[in-house]
Amino acid sequence: MGYSSLLGPKEETVKIEVGLREPLLTPSLQAEVRTLLLDPVSELPLVPLLSVECLSWQEAMAEKLRAALSRRDVAIRDFYDIDHAVHRLGSHVLRPGFVELVRKKLAVPGNESIDVSVGRLNNLRLQVDPELRPVLRARDFAEFNLERAFAEVVEVAAALER
Fold first, then answer.
1. Is residue 38 part of a domain?
2. For residues 3-32, b (16+ Cβ closer than 10 Å) or e, as one string?
3. pLDDT tens for residues 99-126?
4. How many CB atoms lie within 10 A of CB 56?
5. How many CB atoms sit inside 10 A of residue 89's CB?
6. Residue 7 has what pLDDT?
7. Mean pLDDT, to the nearest integer, of 132-153?
């Protein structure tokens, strides 16, 4: 989706991903969403809070792991989200129940095979600066560690093989 930025002359984009190919494995929930965009004078949000139906935390994380493990065109955003969830929010991706949820997600027809190859990691390295840096605050970008995130995904892949 594109929009005209107030901060520059070019059109900016927002990626929105919608998946409709399978039922949820955990109940959805209502949550309030907010923006980081603040009015420069009042410092209040420019967009009011909005209540939306969304995936549970576990289901969203299982989707991220499925994408990191098997997305045809690997995306750095999946690895950033996993790294952030594990190292900043304390999420535990190796809990047996969670690994089983990821296994169920991967079992849905249409997924690619698990790929945690060096080639995949190298492809991700090429995406860090052009695709991740522009969309993160400097502090958040500095805290991201691709090698650590990839290692988390490799550990999940190993747990799935057991």
1. no
2. eeeeeeeeeeeeeeeeeeeeeebeeeeeee
3. 999 999 999 999 999 999 999 999 999 9
4. 16
5. 9
6. 67
7. 96
- Please compute the mean of the pLDDT values over residues 78-103 and round it to a whole number: 95
Q: For residues 82 and 127, what is the distance between their CA atoms, to the nearest angstrom?
A: 16
In a domain, 50, yes or no: no
142 assigned to some structural domain: yes
CA atoms within 13 A on the CB side of 93: 32
* Residue 157 within any structural domain of the chain: yes
Residue of 95, 94, 93, 96 whose CA lies nearest to 78 = 93
Single out the residue of 80, 15, 27 nearest to residue 58, CA to CA.
27
62 touches 153 (CB < 8 A): no
- What is the pTM for the complete model shown? 0.83
In Å, what is the CA distance from 104 to each residue of 8, 63, 100, 109, 132? Answer: 44, 10, 6, 10, 29
Q: Which residue carries 């969403």 as its tokens?
A: 33
Query: Burial letters for 143-155: b for 16+ Cβ neighbours within 10 Å, e otherwise?
Result: ebebeebbebbee
Domain that holds residue 83: 56-161
Q: How many domains does the chain have?
A: 1
Measure the N-to-C terminal CA separation of the chain; round to a whole number of Å: 41
